[in-house]
Amino acid sequence: MDAAEHPNGKYVGADSCRACHPDVTSTFFRNSHAKKTLGGKEDITSPDLAKHSCESCHGPGEKHVRERKGKSNIGAFSLMTAKQTVDTCLQCHTQQFPRANIRRSPHTTGEVGCASCHSIHNLARQRQQQNALDRLTPLATSSSAPVAAGAPKGSLALAQPELCYGCHANVRAQFSMPFKHRVNEGFMQCTDCHNPHGTSAPTWRMASRPKLVDQGLINEEACLKCHVQQRGPFAYEHAAVRVDGCETCHTPHGSANARLLKRPAVFTVCLECHNGAPGFGRDQTVGIPTQSPSHSMTNPRYQNCTACHVRIHGSNADSRFLR
Ligand code: HEC
Ligand code: HEC
Ligand code: HEC
Ligand code: HEC
Ligand code: HEC
Ligand code: HEC
Ligand code: HEC
Ligand code: HEC
Ligand code: HEC
Ligand code: HEC
Fold first, then answer.
1. Which is the closest atom of ligand 5 to the Cα of 209?
2. What's the number of CA atoms in the CB half-sphere (13 Å) around residue 255?
3. Cβ(50) – ligand 4 distance below 6 Å
4. For residue 283, what pLDDT band results from cuts at 50, 70 and 90?
5. CA distance 103 to 81
6. Same domain, 262 and 273
7. Does the CB atom of residue 95 touch ligand 3 within 6 A?
8. 0.85 surpassed by pTM
9. Residue 317 included in any domain
């Protein structure tokens, strides 16, 4: 926007903020925004947004400085909707995050803007650390550090997974199940599978919402980044894997069942589909084939489907995934 026409007046520069916001201003030189966008060279006359230190995010500060206080006369994030915050940050961040994805992400539409997860100034933590240090006796200071040093990567308000659990408390319990991905143990992160900034429409489970599940290579499900054995392509694909996605049979976070399966016994997973109900599969009138007549479900031998159908995720040798 042309600064001359801005309702809050002109750019006045970071020096004008120092007197009243010393805590924010004194630490800002360490911020990647100060380092990467400014390189120390602020220019209040430049049309280039990147040349405006504080005002690149908060907008022109003339009116705010003249009135010596106020929130409505400055770009105050505490008053912004998620959409307004996203718009402000996307003035520069469109390269990492395609606008369309982040605008329709359940976070943005659920009123969770950039500043709900990222804290640019991290004042809360700075004050907390200062208080903690003030309380310490010299003896205690020499022991192991009582407060985490520095801010988490990416200017996050909190490190993962605590950041996410703050709002998704039910997910914590899922990662405490007997079988689970080891997120709480620090071996992987929520963002190994999810993109909190929104995702493109996926090619798996096209009919359903993607739940922010990230795309790996070539628009495939994020799981395949790590589970390359299940990747394929296979000469004989199992439609359940390729079309419906991994979470048709697996609970991705955690499960009471081995192999993160949705049901305790393998055959109950299979029979959800392989029951001959019409409307799906090669022959729409027949539906997904029931297991062949040779399979006697009263014979326990046949209940362990994957004892014989060992290539359940797809096979290059056998259309029935027997090898
Ligand atoms: C003369 C003192 C003074 C100066 C100079 C000043 N501010 Fe402020 N600012 C305040 C006060 C006081 C408040 C609290 C407003 C309130 O609660 O009504 C405030 C609030 C803010 C807020 C709103 C925070 C929020 O979200 O609640 C922002 C952003 C801000 N100032 C940025 C700036 C910037 C950027 C500059 C320099 C261009 C600046 N201020 C210069 C006194 C000042
Ligand atoms: C990259 C964008 C960005 C830049 C640059 C920036 N701020 Fe902020 N500012 C924010 C966000 C976002 C918040 C909301 C609180 C947070 O995330 O830490 C905020 C909050 C504030 C607040 C309110 C703090 C509080 O107590 O809640 C003040 C005052 C402020 N900024 C002043 C400044 C000043 C002064 C500068 C320059 C030295 C500056 N900001 C540079 C994004 C920015
Ligand atoms: C729901 C929480 C959440 C929201 C909302 C969010 N982010 Fe993030 N963002 C994260 C997390 C978590 C990471 C760290 C990802 C990682 O470690 O791989 C991240 C990473 C980033 C990075 C890369 C940091 C780095 O060091 O690589 C940028 C830039 C960024 N976010 C900007 C934004 C902007 C701009 C917005 C708003 C348009 C936004 N984020 C909204 C959670 C969020
Ligand atoms: C004037 C342009 C500009 C604006 C506006 C802007 N950013 Fe940035 N941001 C950058 C640049 C440039 C970098 C450094 C990129 C790099 O390191 O490759 C960056 C880096 C980041 C990073 C990663 C580095 C880190 O650890 O801090 C995050 C997170 C981020 N910005 C979030 C935000 C958020 C949230 C907003 C809105 C409140 C915002 N940015 C507004 C230009 C901007
Ligand atoms: C400030 C609160 C907040 C934080 C922090 C937060 N979320 Fe969310 N999240 C929401 C809200 C609100 C929604 C949208 C409402 C809903 O569907 O639950 C949402 C939706 C989601 C969804 C999609 C759910 C669906 O049904 O489509 C996923 C996945 C998700 N968040 C993961 C994360 C991850 C991963 C993090 C940490 C990087 C995170 N969230 C951090 C509040 C938050
Ligand atoms: C191993 C990959 C993976 C990891 C790690 C992961 N998720 Fe998920 N998450 C998924 C998948 C896949 C879905 C979609 C499940 C479905 O649709 O049945 C999902 C769904 C969700 C949902 C929507 C739940 C619902 O019932 O609607 C939320 C919220 C969520 N995840 C949050 C998180 C948080 C928070 C973390 C980190 C603590 C996390 N996830 C880690 C793969 C993962
Ligand atoms: C960042 C790498 C990574 C991603 C992404 C990932 N996983 Fe995993 N997965 C692992 C690791 C490592 C294990 C081994 C279990 C452990 O950590 O103890 C595992 C275990 C499993 C198991 C249990 C295997 C066994 O032998 O018991 C299943 C099933 C599984 N993952 C499915 C998925 C699904 C479905 C997704 C996508 C929603 C996914 N994984 C995404 C790394 C990953
Ligand atoms: C049709 C149901 C189904 C789908 C869809 C499915 N799996 Fe499986 N998966 C299974 C069964 C059943 C097992 C257990 C096999 C056993 O115990 O012999 C399994 C086992 C696994 C294992 C443990 C190692 C192994 O091969 O036995 C991993 C890892 C795994 N699946 C990942 C995935 C990934 C990643 C996807 C998505 C690309 C996926 N699964 C989709 C049914 C499925
Ligand atoms: C989400 C539904 C679904 C689930 C769950 C499922 N399948 Fe399938 N399966 C299919 C579909 C669809 C086909 C392809 C049928 C067609 O093309 O007509 C198929 C094909 C097969 C075939 C090849 C049939 C043939 O005639 O070539 C076998 C064998 C098979 N599945 C075994 C299993 C086993 C064992 C399980 C349990 C671990 C299982 N399936 C779970 C949907 C499912
Ligand atoms: C003891 C080994 C064994 C077990 C256990 C087994 N199968 Fe099979 N399955 C086979 C063989 C061999 C064939 C191919 C020859 C035939 O049709 O009998 C087959 C064929 C199939 C077919 C293809 C039928 C068609 O019409 O083309 C399906 C579907 C199938 N099985 C599903 C299942 C399901 C679901 C289970 C678990 C409830 C299961 N199988 C357990 C060995 C087994």
1. 27
2. 14
3. yes
4. low
5. 13
6. yes
7. no
8. yes
9. yes
